[in-house]
Amino acid sequence: MEPLIRVEDLCHRFDSKLVLSQIGFELFQGECLALVGKGGAGKSLILKMICGLLRPSSGRVYVFDQEIAHASEASLFALRKQIGFVFQNNALFDALTVIENVKFPLIRAGLNDGEATRQALGCLAQVGLEQAASKWPNALSGGMKKRVCLARALVSKPKLLLCDDPTAGLDPVTTQRIFRLIGETQRQLSATVILVSHEISALRQLCERMLLIDGGQVLFDGSFEQGRLCSDDRVSGFLNRGMSACF
Ligand SMILES: Nc1ncnc2c1ncn2[C@@H]1O[C@H](COP(=O)(O)OP(=O)(O)OP(=O)(O)O)[C@@H](O)[C@H]1O
Ligand SMILES: [Mg+2]
């Protein structure tokens, strides 16, 4: 079986500063990967490169068998229809209502307004926000915004779901709810998921594998159990601290 994502020798610089170095990994259809690491490690950059929002300085990224680091904007547009992205900073359109935000990917893909509204309302119901459909984003709480983002990411039934810290700053109940929704989505759509989060305990329940990024490099790629027992203190230390933070 061919991997759904293949990242090879990915490097990125901002001016002279090397922020990603020789990143390489593969991800197969249906896998759920936890992408973890300290703040500034390079997690968000990797997600942006996977959907072609940022072009790497060097290296290759294959998604659905297409090389995207050098792809045209037209082919990236087609590719992104199959990718749902929950942005770390939400990236909701302030000038659009909640329902308009959620149906935006469908309208952009050419669906008629009636059908787009129907599907968007279905997704809002899934995240428990159908009552908020006509509200403006700035009238929502942080947790509600995150759930709108998740609804927008799910509305086109993506084959690949990229979630960048989808529960940052949320209360434990909403956090649990969001992780449950991501797990349900993965099962329902047989989606492949990359989940960036610092919630190690929740990640361990959802993801069979983790990629630990440290200083722009892959420090570890394997199961949580292997990571916990890893002889490299940076790996086991990171995981054990993350786990103990839950008690
Ligand atoms: N536009 C930019 N210009 C310059 N440096 C940047 C830019 N975007 C990111 N960086 C740098 O690249 C590195 C990786 O950033 P990234 O946002 O991927 O970190 P992260 O792992 O997602 O961190 P966090 O957990 O805090 O979200 C950081 O050192 C950051 O300062
Ligand atoms: Mg980030």
- CATH class of the largest domain, named Alpha Beta
Total number of distinct structural domains? 2
- Write the CATH homologous superfamily of the largest domain: P-loop containing nucleotide triphosphate hydrolases
On the 0 to 100 scale, the average pLDDT is: 92
Distance between the termini: 40 Å
Describe the sheet with the most strands: 6 strands, mixed
Q: How are the SSEs ordered, and which strands pair?
A:
Elements: E1 5-14, E2 17-27, E3 32-36, H1 43-50, E4 58-63, E5 66-67, H2 73-80, E6 83-86, H3 98-108, H4 113-126, H5 142-154, E7 160-164, H6 172-189, E8 192-196, H7 200-206, E9 209-214, E10 217-222, H8 224-228, H9 233-244
Parallel strand pairs: 3-8, 3-9, 6-7, 7-8
Antiparallel strand pairs: 1-2, 1-4, 4-5, 9-10
Helix pairs in contact: 3-4, 3-5, 4-5, 5-6
Bound molecules: adenosine-5'-triphosphate and magnesium ion (MG).
Structure overview:
- By secondary structure, the chain is an alpha/beta fold.
- Helix content is 39%, strand content 24%.
- The protein has 2 domains: 1-82 and 160-198 and 210-218, 3-Layer(aba) Sandwich (Rossmann fold), CATH 3.40.50; 92-157, no CATH class.
- It has helices spanning 43-50, 73-80, 98-108, 113-126, 142-154, 172-189, 200-206, 224-228, 233-244; strands at residues 5-14, 17-27, 32-36, 58-63, 66-67, 83-86, 160-164, 192-196, 209-214, 217-222.
- Helix 3 runs parallel beside helix 5, helix 4 (113-126) packs across helix 5 and helix 5 (142-154) packs parallel to helix 6 (172-189).
- It is globular.
- The termini are far apart.
- The model has no long low-confidence stretch (mean pLDDT 92).
- Bound molecules: adenosine-5'-triphosphate and magnesium ion.
- The site of adenosine-5'-triphosphate (ATP) has 11 residues, from helix 1.
